[in-house]
Structure formats: C-alpha cells, structure tokens
Amino acid sequence: MAEVAGRAVFVPGTVPGDRVLAEVFDQGKAMRGELLEVLDPAPGRRSPVCPLADRCGGCDWMHLTEALQHEYKQQIVTSALEHLGGIGHERYELLPFVFSPMPYNTRRRAVLHPVKGRLGFFGKRSHTHVEVDLCPALTPPLESLPGELADALGTALKDIDEVHLLEVGGEVSFALMAKGALRPKHREVAQALIRDEVVAGVVLVPGAGKGAPELLGKPVLEADGVRYRPDAFSQANADVNAPLVDHAIAELDCGPDDHVLELYSGNGNFTFPLAAAAKSVLAVESSTVSVGLAQDAARKQGFGNVRFVQGDCEKFAKGLVKESKRFDRVLLDPPRTGAPGIGEWASRLLASKVVYIACDPGALARDAAELVAQGFVPRTVRLFDLFPQTRHIEVVMSFTRGSRG
Predict the structure, then answer these.
(1) Active-site residue among 59, 135, 313, 359?
(2) DSSP 8-state secondary structure symbol assigned to residue 7
(3) Are 283 and 351 found together in one domain?
(4) How confident is the model over 25-62, as pLDDT tens digits?
C-alpha cells in the first residue's frame, strides 16, 4: 500500500519498502496501481523460482522470502482478530507457527482448466487462464502431470470443464469434470493412463443432469485410515495437515464420556481421531462424496460411535438447537465463508469447548466475535502454513465456555 495525493493506493506484487514505478487508476472507491518496474527492491524480496509467477494466480507471494511470508501471515491473522473481531492479542495465547517443511512441491491437489488446447490455472486477479505444463508448487508425482494430461487428452479437452488432480502417499488419481455427457474418448484416455500406470484411477464426472460419475481403476486413495477422491475436498498439504489434526484434537481435549459435534466434517480428516478419544461423534457434511468416503473408512476401521449426516451444516445445527440436543465439544472446519451463527449454536448446545479451524482470517474474526458475545473465552491461536508461496493461511483457534462478557 502506498499513498498518492493523500489517498491510499493498493499495488499488488509489491513488498513494503519497495520503491516502484506503477500506473495508478481509480477502481471504485479505492485507488489501484499496476506494477510496472521495481526500482529499488525491499529486503525480503527475491526472484520467483517459477517463470509464470508474474502471471499465474496460484502463488501470489513467491516473490517474498519464507521468513517475510510468515511474518505477514501472522500480522494478517492477529490484525483481523483485533480489528474485525474486537479480540486483542492479549486475550489469547499465540502458539508457535507451524511451517511447511518444504517451501515448494507441497500441494497434493489442484484444479486445472482447459486453455488453448492445454491445461492451466487462473491468472492473477482474473478468470483468464495461464497455460501450465509443469508446476513447482505441486508434489513431485503431480509436478509434470498438467502437461502430460494435456498431451493425453488432446482434442477431448474441448469437452472438459475442469481437471482435478490428487496425490496421496505417492499414488495419483484425477477427475475429469465434463461440460456435458461423457464421451468414449474420455474413457479411452483414462483407461490408457491407468494401463500405463501414470495414475491409479480416474473419476469421470458428467455435466449436471447427464448421469452419475464413473470410477475407473482405483481413484479412491487412502492414508492413515482416511479415504480420498479427486472430486472431493481434502487439505492440500499432507505434511502440515498431520500436525494440524493433532493440535486441533489436543485443544478439544475430549474424554471418554464426551459427545462431540463436528461440523463441515469432510472425508473424516478430524473425525476418526475424535472418535478414538470421545464417547460419540456426530459428523455433518454437505458433500455426498465426502460423506460416502468417511462412512466407508469408519466401517473399515470399526468405528461404531460415529454417525455421519449429509446435509447443510447451518440448517442441521439449528435443528439440533430446536431439539434441545446437548454436546460437550464442538469442532468445525468451515469453508472461506465461515460459520455465521456458531456462537448461538455452541452456546445453546451447552458445549464447554469449541475448536475452530479457519482458512479465512476475516471469517474467523467475525465468528470468534460471535462466540465471545455468547460467553466463550478465547484460549489459543495457532497458524499452520498449508499454503506456502501464497497469502493463504490455516488457523486453529480454541475457546472454552466462560462467563458472558
């Protein structure tokens, strides 16, 4: 952020301390700048390792050193809690930052889009596409797959809306999201890639109203008892996800007599460690595919104390409140939109502890303020760098029931 004639100007792609040449223009109520040249770089600026970093929207902070990325991410979270949530840093314990052990080759899933006969990602701050054949942000088994899949699909790409990549424990699967009905060419390409052992399996997903998904080979991958599919959500960084789960479970501190409500439970990333510690877990998730994966994994592991519900978490939580249900603990991992209403739900369900896993600091701040207004006391905040080279950060914040106000 810079200042011109007394007005703030936002210039993406810069580092505080840079001296730059930028073209300035009005954009609504704000002024924006387009970076033309870095005249005098600030400490902490570096040359990105990826030649597409100036155009691709995937790694918007690759021009910053990891140390500077960590510093700014912590500032973003603590500032959001203070200024948006009214929760100053003195009201909680900020635990040590958990960094990604690798700065690159960390992302085990990705969504690609067809672009001029190839595959690519969205460009910076736009819905235009940037062609990508090799991506250093992806795990080694996926790194060159965008180019390989584009070569294999060829003309079949014109009928594809998206390609979802997934790698778990060195095995790879992907999903083709078709614009309309599935075509023989899609099946032929998928079967050839499976036969050549490029991938373990493929999910072919037709357009809306054009039939059910087809599973070829073994597209469902598994690690540590959790099952994954390329057309369902999973955390992108396996190395950081493990300590994230361990910390969240430790903060919830379940006992053998506790009943737990888990909202936005996905494929069971947190569910099974919860089930091992608690008396019962009620896990709620909107994705049919994710619920199916979690149910299969629970049966395989013999967890009889977990009940999975497929549905809207907000509506279901409101229903539990109306039925005067009671839970000792609440854990939630909502999308970027957050979980409006969590303060009232947790209070009326009489939960004594809440653990909130957030991927958006603004949504966390708003929902944390709701919890505080309902009498919950912030205890700890911990950052997990699941997304190195980007502005994104995962945060775990814990609360205990206290006196209102």
Answers:
(1) 359
(2) E
(3) yes
(4) 887 778 999 899 999 999 999 999 999 998 999 999 99
Which of 228, 257, 285 represents a domain boundary (last residue)? 228
The Cα 344–Cα 371 span in angstroms is 7
Last residue of a domain, one of 199, 228, 257: 228
Give yes or no: residues 290 and 377 share one domain: yes
State the sign of the Cα–Cα–Cα–Cα dihedral 199, 119, 335, 106: positive
Could you give the CA distance from residue 389 to residue 62 in angstroms, rounded to a whole number? Answer: 5
Please check whether residue 55 lies inside any domain of the structure: no
Q: By residue range, what is the domain housing residue 209?
A: 109-228
Q: Is the confidence at residue 24, as pLDDT, over 50?
A: yes
What digits encode the pLDDT tens for the residues 178-206? Answer: 999 999 999 999 999 999 999 999 999 99
Residue type, 396: V
Best CA proximity match to 231, nearest among 214, 244, 210? 214
In the three-class reduction of DSSP (H, G, I as helix; E, B as strand; rest coil), residue 147 is classed as helix
- Judge if 210 and 302 occupy the same domain: no
Residue type, position 326, single letter:
R
pTM of this prediction exceeds 0.90 = yes
Residue 384: closest CA among 225, 249, 239 = 239
Q: How far is CA 143 from CA 69, 108, 139, 316, 349, in A?
A: 23, 10, 6, 40, 46
Is 50 in the active site? no
What letter represents residue 134's amino acid? L
Q: Are residues 305 and 388 in the same domain?
A: yes
How far, in Å, CA of 314 to CA of 342, rounded?
Answer: 9
- What tokens appear for 357 in the block? 């896993």
Does a structural domain hold residue 57? no
Instruction: Compute the distance between CA of residue 360 and CA of residue 367 in angstroms, rounded to an integer.
Output: 11
Tokens representing residue 230 in the block = 């390329």
Give the model's pLDDT for residue 403. Answer: 54
Domain tally for the chain?
A: 3
* pLDDT of 405: 38
Burial-class residue 264 by CB neighbours within 10 Å (0-12, 13-18, 19+). buried
Asked whether residue 252 is assigned to any structural domain, the reply reads yes
CA 215 – CA 234 distance, rounded (Å)? 18
